[in-house]
Amino acid sequence: MTMITKLQRPCLRSRQLHTITSQETIKPSSPTPPHLKTHNLSLVDQLVPSINIPLIFFYKYYTPSDTNILKKSLSQTLTSYYPLAGRFVAPNFSAPQIDCNDQGVEFFEASNDSQLSDFILKKDVDETMDQLIPSYQVGGYKNHPFLAEVQLTRFGCGGAAVVVSMSHKVGDGFTMGSFINHWAAVARGGSPKNPTFLSSKCKFKIPEFDLKGGDEAKYAIKRFVFPNSKLNELKKKVNVTVVNPTRVEVLSSLIFSCSVSAATTVSGCLQPSNMFQIVNMRKKLIEQNRPDIAAGNIGTLAAVKIRKCGEMKLNEVIYKLRKQIEEPKEVRDVDEIGGLCLKRLSMLGLNFGCRTEGIEAIVKLEEREMAIFQQDKQILAYSQDNFA
Predict the structure, then answer these.
(1) What are 69's strand-pairing partners?
(2) Architecture of the domain whose range is 18-197
(3) What is the pLDDT of residues 339-360, one digit of tens each?
(4) pTM, entire model
(5) Distance between CA 22 and CA 107 in Å, rounded?
(6) Which CATH number among 3.30.70.141, 3.40.630.30, 2.60.120.10, 3.30.559.10 corresponds to the domain 220-382?
């Protein structure tokens, strides 16, 4: 175990209250069989951004004995989710692979003198949340060896945050949710079903995209909480156009419509815009016996375009979104498919510490647009200010 006395993370300011206390590599409890030692990345795996997907779980109460349970059950879970304990291999000309060599994932422990409520009740999303995320970065996967990392942060109030960060190259949000659910079940003494990792036959290498870009605009990031009672009101309002719309459909469409309206106000004219909703394709996989636990990037994008003022109406946006989501009919091979809305994941069994009965949205807009967006009558009507 390596003891670290000072947190060093690029692009972040001073962290006087946050200290990394230990760092340990957790390896699978059993070795990966020889026939599973190589996991080939599909075309979709190569196309997704080289980023980590972080999820933060807050708990009001935490005891020291829970740490050993987390580590032991994580080791057992990595036996089933073996690519996460491997390392990327990126040949010069052929498709990249994961060498499932059981080298393990990083497990950080940290202490934070803040209160749990300082994070839970915070409306502005700023760098303080990054303290909880291990080595979160945007960059080529060749520069970051670990495919998964965990950070356990204990707060002064006795609560804790558990952050799981997974490489998007290994899988989508559904894969991550399945991994965390599996881990939680093992920690409780259960024996969950093992996933099926879909290894590709792709031999081609696709150039990586640079996500950093050169946009110098200043952005604002805000949290908005939409309670179920308000979302149900919104569903009833649009039910005439789209039969039984889901909460995700109405909320995604509301945010998109209001953000386009804000951009139009700032620029003085309609800004052509696209909304992309990631659709899980597992249930449409042919010849896949257990689609619910198929692991990898198994999704496609449903795109909604706004080119005219009349298309900004909420009913119109929801109608277009529903049509795009229902359009894909079948998938024959993992290389033919393009994430998943995390709200769809069945993760309530993890017993989150402070959970709002509704949906929380993190919205990032140019500062002038955000000032208009957060005062939009529809946003004010369906969101709430109280984060408790």
Answers:
(1) none
(2) 2-Layer Sandwich (3.30)
(3) 334 343 443 334 333 344 788 8
(4) 0.71
(5) 8
(6) 3.30.559.10
